[in-house]
Design brief:
single chain; alpha+beta; tt1808, chain A; 6-stranded mixed β-sheet
């Protein structure tokens, strides 16, 4: 998803969480909320959506016998320490979902988050958003997937509570996610995209 400028309604630029949730739960479109500001989330391109669908459908099959479950971009994540509500492209929850004030919507405990990068948001996803996501105590891995090149970055937290990064760019490589019992191939991630023609 691509973010647009903050919403301005009735000349007001800052909103409470309660105001945001009331508007968001009644809206047909998705919006990100960060420290009082509301940002429209524009639709993503075809290639972006194919990649996100590939990740979700492959994980859904591979995790069918696991307590971990993948969720699509309709799943809202809330980072309480930074007052951020957002919608990752794919998230994985490995325990019973915990939600903000038991609303059954705004998840607090994702284990893995995938963001498919768009040209306009890749810097935010790689830097600013990653810093915000790192405040999620249950988060074990953060995966950034390029949509215009075969390139995946996997950040995971090691046994010393430090974040490490591994980069993948070979279409035959396996994407290793230490916190779940399955691996993804880059072929599975990029199948049916214009980046490869043999899958």
């Amino acid at each position: 998803m691509e973010l647009q400028e903050p919403e301005i309604a009735n000349g007001k630029r800052k909103y409470t969480i309660e105001e945001y949730l009331e508007m968001e739960n009644a809206s047909l479109e998705k919006h990100e909320y960060y420290q009082g500001e509301i940002f429209s989330m524009a639709g993503a391109g075809i290639q972006h959506n194919i990649i996100a669908k590939n990740i979700l459908s492959t994980l859904d099959k591979k995790l069918s016998k696991s307590p971990c479950q993948p969720f699509n971009s309709d799943t809202r994540i809330y980072i309480e320490q930074k007052t951020l509500f957002t919608y990752p492209d794919v998230s994985i929850i490995c325990d019973e979902p915990i939600t903000f004030e038991n609303d059954g919507i705004s998840v607090l405990n994702p284990s893995i988050i995938f963001e498919v990068l768009s040209p306009s948001t890749k810097d935010y996803d790689r830097k600013g958003k990653f810093l915000l996501y790192r405040n999620i105590k249950d988060l074990k891995s953060y995966v950034l997937v390029e949509s215009d090149a075969i390139k995946v970055e996997v950040y995971h937290i090691n046994k010393h509570d430090l974040w490490e990064m591994k980069e993948y760019s070979d279409i035959n490589e396996y994407l290793r996610l230490p916190s779940i019992p399955v691996n993804l191939t880059l072929k599975e991630i990029y199948k049916k995209t214009k980046l490869i023609s043999t899958v």
